[in-house]
Amino acid sequence: MAQFDVYTNPMADQRGRIPYWLDLQSNHIGQIDSRVIIPLRNLHAMGPRIEGLQPLVTVAGQSLCADVPAIASFPARLLKNPVTCIDAQRHDLVAALDYLISGY
Fold first, then answer.
1. pLDDT tens-digit readout, 5-33
2. What is the CATH number of the domain that holds 16?
3. Model's pTM, two decimal places?
């Protein structure tokens, strides 16, 4: 598992709204059995997006909202093979985390 890996949402009943989860946890913290994730939401399945707090990311050619305020912990064993890694979008994702914590 690596930071910024994207996984198919293992909860089939949610995939219409949240097709993927993004692993935000540092690569240096692998010994615990959970991972810090955020949902990657379909744009049609959410209300207005807050610029800077909910950045757009691209997965498999699809534009999705990285819903940073919905950050959560999830059992690592349920995150199977990553679909892709969006490390190239690291700057926007870390900036959104900073915004969530500090307000700017």
1. 999 999 999 999 999 999 999 888 877 89
2. 2.30.30.110
3. 0.92
Does residue 83 contact residue 60 with C-beta atoms inside 8 Å? yes
Domain that holds residue 88: 5-102
Using the CB atoms, write b or e for 9-42: b if 16+ within 10 Å. beeeeeeeebbbbbbbbeeeeeeeeebbbbbbbb
Distance CA 13, CA 59 (A): 20
DSSP state of 89: G
Indicate the number of domains in the chain: 1
Tokens of 44: 């049609």
The residue type found at 66 is: A
